């Protein structure tokens, strides 16, 4: 599964509409987009259950499986994502 810039633009716009202050693309979708089977994102600024609502909405809108994790509270995994990922917001 390959994805395109239009899908990333849609992801970014929708995340902003939910109040995202940071959104980072990581994993295979960032490192090897031509071979990625899903999109991995890390997000900050979307509180509580709204984060899960955003994840479901994104998956419906772009029709691609995705994982959306919170950046807060920070831990070793989220710090690695911040170092290696591609910041969309």
Any overview of this molecule?
The protein has 89 residues and is an alpha+beta fold. It has one domain: Beta Polymerase, domain 2 (2-Layer Sandwich), CATH 3.30.460.10. It has 4 helices and 4 strands; from the N terminus they run H-E-H-E-H-E-H-E. Strands 3-2-1-4 form a 4-stranded mixed β-sheet, sandwiched between helices. Helix 3 (48-62) links the parallel strand 2 and strand 3. Helix 1 runs antiparallel to helix 3 (48-62). It is globular and about 30 Å long. The two termini are 24 Å apart.
Name a few traits of the molecule.
89 residues, alpha+beta, Beta Polymerase, domain 2, four-stranded mixed sheet, globular
Helix content: 40-55%
Low-confidence stretches: none
The largest beta-sheet arranges its strands as: 3-2-1-4
As a percent range, the share of strand residues is 15-25%
Number of domains: 1
Q: Could you name the CATH topology?
A: Beta Polymerase, domain 2
Quote the average pLDDT. 93
State the CATH class.
Alpha Beta
């Amino acid at each position: 599964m390959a994805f395109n810039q239009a899908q990333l633009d849609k992801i970014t716009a929708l995340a902003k509409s939910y109040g995202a202050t940071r959104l980072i693309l990581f994993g295979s979708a960032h490192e090897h987009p031509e071979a990625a089977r899903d999109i991995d994102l890390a997000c900050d600024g979307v509180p509580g259950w709204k984060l899960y609502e955003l994840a479901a909405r994104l998956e419906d809108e772009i029709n691609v499986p995705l994982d959306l994790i919170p950046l807060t509270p920070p831990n070793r995994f989220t710090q690695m994502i911040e170092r290696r990922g591609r910041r969309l917001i």
